Amino acid sequence: MDIRHAIHPEHAALLDTDELREHFLIEQLFSGDAPNLIYTFYDRLIIGGIKPSGPVECAVDSAVIGADYLLERREMGVINIGGPGSILVEGKKIAMADRDGLYIGKGNRTMVFASDDAANPARYYLLSAPAHNVYPTEKITFADAAPVEMGEMEKSNKRTIRKYIHPDGVKSCQLVMGMTTLEPGSVWNTMPPHSHQRRMEAYLYFNMKEEDFVFHFMGEADQTRHLVVREGQAVLSPSWSIHAGAGTGSYTFIWGMAGENQAFTDMDHIPMSEIR
Ligand SMILES: O=C[C@H](O)[C@@H](O)CC(=O)C(=O)O
Ligand SMILES: [Zn+2]
User: Fold this and answer.
1) I need a surface site. Which of 66, 127, 183, 241 has the fewest CB within 10 A?
2) What is the 258 CA–ligand 1 centroid distance (Å)?
3) Is residue 248 within 8 Å of 194, Cβ to Cβ?
4) How many domains does one find in the chain?
5) Is residue 86 assigned to a domain?
6) Whose CA is nearest to atom 8 of ligand 1?
7) Can you tell me the ipTM of this complex?
8) Which of 181, 82, 71 has its CA nearest to residue 125?
9) How would you classify the pairing of strands 2-4 and 36-40?
Protein backbone atom coordinates (compact mmCIF):
# COMPACT_ATOMS: atom_id res chain seq x y z
CA MET A 1 0.00 0.00 0.00
CA ASP A 2 1.23 3.48 -0.91
CA ILE A 3 1.77 5.32 2.41
CA ARG A 4 1.94 9.11 2.47
CA HIS A 5 3.35 10.69 5.59
CA ALA A 6 2.20 14.07 6.80
CA ILE A 7 4.51 16.91 5.74
CA HIS A 8 5.16 20.06 7.78
CA PRO A 9 4.41 23.27 5.83
CA GLU A 10 7.97 24.55 6.37
CA HIS A 11 9.26 21.32 4.83
CA ALA A 12 6.78 21.47 1.96
CA ALA A 13 8.03 24.96 1.05
CA LEU A 14 11.51 23.47 0.38
CA LEU A 15 10.38 20.73 -2.01
CA ASP A 16 11.08 20.72 -5.74
CA THR A 17 8.59 19.62 -8.40
CA ASP A 18 9.34 15.87 -8.13
CA GLU A 19 9.24 15.91 -4.33
CA LEU A 20 5.99 17.88 -4.23
CA ARG A 21 4.43 15.37 -6.64
CA GLU A 22 5.74 12.41 -4.63
CA HIS A 23 4.09 13.65 -1.44
CA PHE A 24 0.92 15.37 -2.62
CA LEU A 25 -0.08 13.96 -6.03
CA ILE A 26 -1.68 10.57 -6.68
CA GLU A 27 -1.02 9.69 -10.32
CA GLN A 28 -2.30 6.12 -10.58
CA LEU A 29 -5.84 5.57 -9.40
CA PHE A 30 -7.62 3.91 -12.30
CA SER A 31 -4.98 1.48 -13.56
CA GLY A 32 -4.79 -2.31 -13.51
CA ASP A 33 -7.45 -4.65 -12.17
CA ALA A 34 -6.56 -4.46 -8.48
CA PRO A 35 -7.79 -1.51 -6.40
CA ASN A 36 -5.24 1.29 -6.01
CA LEU A 37 -5.33 2.36 -2.37
CA ILE A 38 -3.29 5.18 -0.88
CA TYR A 39 -3.06 5.72 2.88
CA THR A 40 -2.31 9.23 4.07
CA PHE A 41 -1.53 10.18 7.65
CA TYR A 42 -3.51 13.39 7.10
CA ASP A 43 -6.55 12.35 9.15
CA ARG A 44 -5.76 8.72 8.17
CA LEU A 45 -7.80 9.02 5.01
CA ILE A 46 -7.57 6.21 2.45
CA ILE A 47 -7.97 7.32 -1.17
CA GLY A 48 -8.70 4.70 -3.79
CA GLY A 49 -9.53 4.02 -7.40
CA ILE A 50 -10.98 0.89 -9.01
CA LYS A 51 -11.60 0.36 -12.74
CA PRO A 52 -12.90 -3.22 -12.81
CA SER A 53 -12.97 -5.32 -15.96
CA GLY A 54 -14.38 -8.24 -13.93
CA PRO A 55 -15.66 -8.19 -10.32
CA VAL A 56 -13.01 -6.80 -7.94
CA GLU A 57 -13.05 -7.26 -4.19
CA CYS A 58 -11.89 -4.22 -2.25
CA ALA A 59 -9.72 -5.55 0.54
CA VAL A 60 -6.93 -3.83 2.45
CA ASP A 61 -3.59 -4.82 3.94
CA SER A 62 -4.77 -5.54 7.52
CA ALA A 63 -1.30 -4.79 8.88
CA VAL A 64 -1.64 -1.15 7.76
CA ILE A 65 -4.95 -0.54 9.52
CA GLY A 66 -4.65 -3.10 12.35
CA ALA A 67 -8.10 -4.53 11.66
CA ASP A 68 -9.37 -7.71 10.01
CA TYR A 69 -11.19 -5.92 7.22
CA LEU A 70 -11.27 -2.44 5.71
CA LEU A 71 -14.52 -1.17 7.25
CA GLU A 72 -14.12 -2.82 10.67
CA ARG A 73 -13.47 0.64 12.15
CA ARG A 74 -13.97 2.77 9.03
CA GLU A 75 -16.60 4.18 6.69
CA MET A 76 -16.42 4.74 2.94
CA GLY A 77 -17.75 7.09 0.30
CA VAL A 78 -17.71 6.07 -3.38
CA ILE A 79 -18.57 7.96 -6.58
CA ASN A 80 -18.58 6.33 -10.02
CA ILE A 81 -17.08 8.53 -12.75
CA GLY A 82 -17.12 5.89 -15.50
CA GLY A 83 -19.51 3.53 -17.25
CA PRO A 84 -22.42 1.84 -15.47
CA GLY A 85 -21.65 -0.86 -12.92
CA SER A 86 -22.64 -2.20 -9.54
CA ILE A 87 -21.27 -2.66 -6.04
CA LEU A 88 -22.11 -5.73 -3.97
CA VAL A 89 -22.10 -4.79 -0.28
CA GLU A 90 -22.37 -7.95 1.85
CA GLY A 91 -23.93 -9.62 -1.20
CA LYS A 92 -26.53 -6.89 -1.76
CA LYS A 93 -26.28 -5.40 -5.26
CA ILE A 94 -26.42 -1.64 -5.71
CA ALA A 95 -26.53 -0.33 -9.29
CA MET A 96 -24.05 2.50 -9.89
CA ALA A 97 -24.52 4.69 -12.97
CA ASP A 98 -22.09 7.43 -13.95
CA ARG A 99 -21.96 10.08 -11.15
CA ASP A 100 -23.86 7.88 -8.66
CA GLY A 101 -22.47 7.94 -5.13
CA LEU A 102 -22.65 5.42 -2.30
CA TYR A 103 -22.02 5.72 1.42
CA ILE A 104 -20.95 2.39 2.96
CA GLY A 105 -21.16 2.25 6.75
CA LYS A 106 -18.81 0.76 9.31
CA GLY A 107 -19.04 -3.01 9.78
CA ASN A 108 -19.57 -4.11 6.19
CA ARG A 109 -17.12 -6.93 5.51
CA THR A 110 -17.31 -7.50 1.78
CA MET A 111 -17.46 -5.06 -1.09
CA VAL A 112 -17.22 -6.21 -4.69
CA PHE A 113 -16.96 -3.63 -7.46
CA ALA A 114 -18.02 -4.48 -11.04
CA SER A 115 -18.66 -2.92 -14.45
CA ASP A 116 -21.71 -3.76 -16.58
CA ASP A 117 -19.54 -3.75 -19.71
CA ALA A 118 -15.78 -4.32 -19.60
CA ALA A 119 -15.46 -2.24 -22.80
CA ASN A 120 -16.95 0.77 -20.96
CA PRO A 121 -15.69 0.19 -17.41
CA ALA A 122 -16.92 1.93 -14.30
CA ARG A 123 -14.35 4.07 -12.48
CA TYR A 124 -14.96 4.08 -8.74
CA TYR A 125 -13.31 6.79 -6.70
CA LEU A 126 -13.38 6.04 -3.01
CA LEU A 127 -12.49 7.71 0.26
CA SER A 128 -12.40 5.93 3.61
CA ALA A 129 -11.97 7.53 7.03
CA PRO A 130 -11.89 6.10 10.57
CA ALA A 131 -15.42 5.78 12.02
CA HIS A 132 -16.84 4.89 15.41
CA ASN A 133 -20.54 4.73 14.69
CA VAL A 134 -22.68 2.86 12.19
CA TYR A 135 -24.65 4.91 9.68
CA PRO A 136 -26.77 3.16 7.05
CA THR A 137 -25.36 2.32 3.66
CA GLU A 138 -27.12 4.64 1.23
CA LYS A 139 -26.98 5.54 -2.45
CA ILE A 140 -26.91 9.15 -3.62
CA THR A 141 -27.61 9.88 -7.29
CA PHE A 142 -26.29 12.98 -9.06
CA ALA A 143 -29.89 14.29 -9.03
CA ASP A 144 -30.20 13.67 -5.24
CA ALA A 145 -27.14 15.76 -4.46
CA ALA A 146 -28.44 19.28 -3.79
CA PRO A 147 -26.81 21.77 -6.21
CA VAL A 148 -25.37 25.11 -5.08
CA GLU A 149 -24.33 27.52 -7.84
CA MET A 150 -21.19 29.54 -7.26
CA GLY A 151 -18.88 31.91 -9.07
CA GLU A 152 -19.40 34.14 -12.10
CA MET A 153 -18.56 34.07 -15.79
CA GLU A 154 -16.50 37.29 -15.48
CA LYS A 155 -14.17 35.47 -13.05
CA SER A 156 -14.08 32.27 -15.17
CA ASN A 157 -15.28 30.34 -12.14
CA LYS A 158 -18.98 29.64 -12.66
CA ARG A 159 -19.61 26.22 -11.19
CA THR A 160 -22.11 24.00 -9.41
CA ILE A 161 -21.22 22.31 -6.11
CA ARG A 162 -23.14 19.12 -5.27
CA LYS A 163 -22.89 17.64 -1.78
CA TYR A 164 -23.22 13.85 -1.68
CA ILE A 165 -22.26 12.96 1.90
CA HIS A 166 -22.85 15.73 4.44
CA PRO A 167 -24.70 16.42 7.73
CA ASP A 168 -27.92 17.60 6.01
CA GLY A 169 -27.99 14.63 3.62
CA VAL A 170 -26.54 11.13 3.78
CA LYS A 171 -24.86 11.01 7.18
CA SER A 172 -21.39 9.84 8.14
CA CYS A 173 -19.01 10.00 11.09
CA GLN A 174 -16.30 12.11 9.44
CA LEU A 175 -16.51 12.00 5.68
CA VAL A 176 -17.90 14.91 3.71
CA MET A 177 -17.91 14.37 -0.03
CA GLY A 178 -19.20 16.06 -3.16
CA MET A 179 -18.64 17.06 -6.74
CA THR A 180 -18.02 20.42 -8.38
CA THR A 181 -18.83 20.85 -12.08
CA LEU A 182 -17.50 23.84 -13.99
CA GLU A 183 -19.52 25.56 -16.70
CA PRO A 184 -18.04 25.59 -20.20
CA GLY A 185 -15.49 28.41 -20.34
CA SER A 186 -15.00 28.47 -16.57
CA VAL A 187 -11.64 27.12 -15.48
CA TRP A 188 -11.02 28.34 -11.91
CA ASN A 189 -12.09 26.58 -8.74
CA THR A 190 -11.98 27.92 -5.21
CA MET A 191 -10.47 31.33 -5.92
CA PRO A 192 -10.55 33.38 -3.64
CA PRO A 193 -9.02 30.47 -1.77
CA HIS A 194 -9.43 29.12 1.73
CA SER A 195 -7.80 26.65 4.05
CA HIS A 196 -9.41 24.86 6.99
CA GLN A 197 -7.21 23.92 9.94
CA ARG A 198 -9.95 21.60 11.19
CA ARG A 199 -9.97 19.31 8.14
CA MET A 200 -7.79 17.88 5.43
CA GLU A 201 -9.15 17.59 1.90
CA ALA A 202 -8.56 15.45 -1.18
CA TYR A 203 -9.40 16.46 -4.76
CA LEU A 204 -9.91 14.16 -7.75
CA TYR A 205 -9.78 15.95 -11.10
CA PHE A 206 -11.50 14.30 -14.09
CA ASN A 207 -13.69 14.84 -17.14
CA MET A 208 -10.88 16.57 -19.02
CA LYS A 209 -9.34 16.04 -22.43
CA GLU A 210 -6.08 14.09 -22.70
CA GLU A 211 -4.02 17.14 -23.62
CA ASP A 212 -5.48 19.29 -20.84
CA PHE A 213 -4.41 19.61 -17.24
CA VAL A 214 -5.15 21.61 -14.13
CA PHE A 215 -2.62 23.75 -12.32
CA HIS A 216 -3.59 22.87 -8.76
CA PHE A 217 -2.41 25.52 -6.31
CA MET A 218 -1.30 24.47 -2.85
CA GLY A 219 0.84 25.65 0.04
CA GLU A 220 0.43 28.26 2.72
CA ALA A 221 -1.13 31.45 1.34
CA ASP A 222 2.21 33.32 1.31
CA GLN A 223 4.19 30.31 -0.05
CA THR A 224 2.11 28.94 -2.91
CA ARG A 225 3.27 26.09 -5.13
CA HIS A 226 1.54 24.22 -7.93
CA LEU A 227 1.01 20.66 -9.14
CA VAL A 228 0.20 19.77 -12.75
CA VAL A 229 -2.73 17.35 -12.46
CA ARG A 230 -4.12 15.28 -15.34
CA GLU A 231 -7.27 13.23 -15.96
CA GLY A 232 -8.12 10.88 -13.10
CA GLN A 233 -5.38 12.07 -10.75
CA ALA A 234 -5.87 13.19 -7.16
CA VAL A 235 -4.27 15.69 -4.83
CA LEU A 236 -3.83 15.60 -1.05
CA SER A 237 -4.55 18.92 0.59
CA PRO A 238 -3.24 19.29 4.16
CA SER A 239 -5.09 21.45 6.66
CA TRP A 240 -2.46 24.20 6.27
CA SER A 241 -2.78 24.40 2.49
CA ILE A 242 -4.89 26.41 0.11
CA HIS A 243 -6.57 24.28 -2.57
CA ALA A 244 -7.54 25.90 -5.84
CA GLY A 245 -7.06 25.14 -9.50
CA ALA A 246 -7.06 26.60 -12.98
CA GLY A 247 -7.51 24.29 -15.97
CA THR A 248 -6.27 24.56 -19.55
CA GLY A 249 -9.74 23.26 -20.46
CA SER A 250 -12.92 22.22 -18.73
CA TYR A 251 -12.91 19.71 -15.90
CA THR A 252 -14.93 18.40 -12.96
CA PHE A 253 -13.64 17.45 -9.55
CA ILE A 254 -14.64 15.44 -6.50
CA TRP A 255 -13.70 16.88 -3.14
CA GLY A 256 -13.72 15.01 0.13
CA MET A 257 -12.79 15.94 3.66
CA ALA A 258 -12.15 14.37 7.05
CA GLY A 259 -11.21 15.88 10.39
CA GLU A 260 -12.59 17.68 13.41
CA ASN A 261 -15.99 18.70 12.08
CA GLN A 262 -18.29 18.41 9.09
CA ALA A 263 -19.43 22.03 8.74
CA PHE A 264 -18.96 22.82 5.05
CA THR A 265 -18.78 26.56 5.78
CA ASP A 266 -16.02 26.16 8.39
CA MET A 267 -13.28 27.65 6.19
CA ASP A 268 -10.50 30.14 6.81
CA HIS A 269 -11.08 32.57 3.96
CA ILE A 270 -7.89 34.15 2.69
CA PRO A 271 -7.99 37.73 1.38
CA MET A 272 -6.72 38.00 -2.22
CA SER A 273 -4.19 40.61 -1.03
CA GLU A 274 -2.41 37.95 1.09
CA ILE A 275 -1.67 35.49 -1.72
CA ARG A 276 1.94 35.25 -2.79
O1 LIG B 1 -13.94 23.06 1.50
C2 LIG B 1 -14.60 22.92 0.45
C3 LIG B 1 -13.93 22.51 -0.77
O4 LIG B 1 -12.71 23.14 -0.89
C5 LIG B 1 -14.77 22.55 -2.04
O6 LIG B 1 -16.10 22.53 -1.74
C7 LIG B 1 -14.50 23.75 -2.89
C8 LIG B 1 -15.22 23.67 -4.18
O9 LIG B 1 -15.74 22.65 -4.56
C10 LIG B 1 -15.29 24.87 -5.01
O11 LIG B 1 -15.09 25.98 -4.48
O12 LIG B 1 -15.53 24.74 -6.20
ZN1 LIG C 1 -11.72 23.37 1.19
Assistant:
1) 66
2) 14
3) no
4) 1
5) yes
6) 190
7) 0.97
8) 82
9) parallel
Domain that includes residue 269, residue range:
12-274
- Residue 192: inside a domain, yes or no? yes
Confirm whether 1 is domain-assigned.
no
Phi, psi (degrees; rounded to nearest 5) at 226: -135, 160
CA angle 26, 31, 37 (to 5 degrees): 50
From atom 1 of ligand 1, which residue's Cα is the shortest distance away? 264
pTM higher than 0.95 for the full model?
Answer: yes
Question: Is the distance from the beta carbon of residue 252 to the nearest atom of ligand 1 less than 6 Å?
Answer: no
CATH number for the domain harbouring residue 185: 2.60.120.10
Three-state SS for 22?
helix
pLDDT tens digits, one per residue of 165-207: 999 999 999 999 999 999 999 999 999 999 999 999 999 999 9
**Ligand 1 site, residue 163, Cβ cutoff 6 A:** no
Q: How far apart are CA 256 and CA 175, in angstroms?
A: 7
Q: What is d(CA 49, CA 32) in angstroms, rounded to the nearest whole number?
A: 10
**Alpha-carbon gap, residue 144 to 132, rounded angstroms:** 26
